[in-house]
Backbone:
């Protein structure tokens, strides 16, 4: 990288600032900090501020819940940022907070990146990512054929959860919660989430959330459901 680019990397920023640097895709691949969340689009490297504690708590809860569900149902593979998703050849490289790849699409996964649109993308909205998550990435994920997109905004005073599924025409449509406030995933049938739990002062035990689902999941063997029913009862008593 050039001295000018390296100087820009080291410059201080506000907590809500996104750093954009003119750079090639090769520069993006050579980025020196592998732990940083950086993306590439239209000849620019986009570097976001490090996530907040609340952001990381929500990511952890969702990874444990969704990841355990995919393991339980042998549905596919879950990845977390930073990990490159090359949405289409020559197109942007994004690094979603959480992404799910179904078993029949694992051939698109390489040791370095996923080629194409994942089946499910989850973005936790932050001050520095709000515009990209709700506008730019929304359009890109739709174009790339991402089947399901979750947008979880935990910023104080802006708490909101939006869920989109790809329809038959290739467009994202907003999916409402059911009468009990639950979202039902299409990519992972049987997986439900009440986004209100992500706004609680103390986030719930992900294993309790999983047990609440698995104890009644018809696709599981009876003995597995019984085990999760017992786990749900035990964890529920522990929270009483």
Residues:
């Amino acid at each position: 990288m050039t001295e000018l680019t390296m100087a820009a990397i080291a410059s201080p920023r506000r907590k809500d600032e996104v750093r954009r640097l003119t750079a090639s895709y090769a520069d993006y691949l050579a980025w020196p900090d592998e732990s940083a969340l950086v993306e590439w689009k239209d000849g620019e490297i986009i570097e976001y501020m490090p996530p907040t504690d609340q952001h990381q708590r929500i990511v952890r809860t969702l990874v444990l819940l969704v990841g355990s569900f995919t393991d339980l149902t042998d549905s596919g593979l879950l990845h977390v940022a930073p990990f490159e998703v090359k949405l289409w050849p020559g197109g942007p490289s994004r690094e979603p907070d959480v992404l799910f790849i179904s078993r029949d699409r694992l051939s698109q996964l390489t040791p370095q990146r996923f080629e194409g649109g994942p089946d499910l993308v989850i973005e936790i909205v932050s001050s520095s990512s709000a515009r990209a998550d709700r506008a730019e990435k929304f359009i890109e994920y739709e174009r790339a054929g991402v089947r399901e997109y979750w947008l979880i905004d935990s910023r104080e005073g802006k708490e909101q959860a939006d869920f989109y599924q790809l329809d038959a025409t290739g467009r994202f449509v907003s999916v409402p919660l059911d009468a009990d406030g639950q979202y039902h995933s299409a990519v992972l049938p049987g997986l439900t989430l009440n986004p209100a739990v992500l706004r609680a002062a103390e986030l719930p035990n992900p294993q309790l959330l999983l047990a609440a689902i698995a104890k009644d999941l018809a696709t599981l063997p009876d003995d597995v459901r019984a085990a999760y029913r017992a786990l749900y009862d035990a964890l529920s008593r522990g929270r009483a």
User: Anything to note?
Assistant: The helical segments are 3-10, 25-29, 53-73, 130-144, 206-214, 222-239. The longest strand covers residues 160-166.
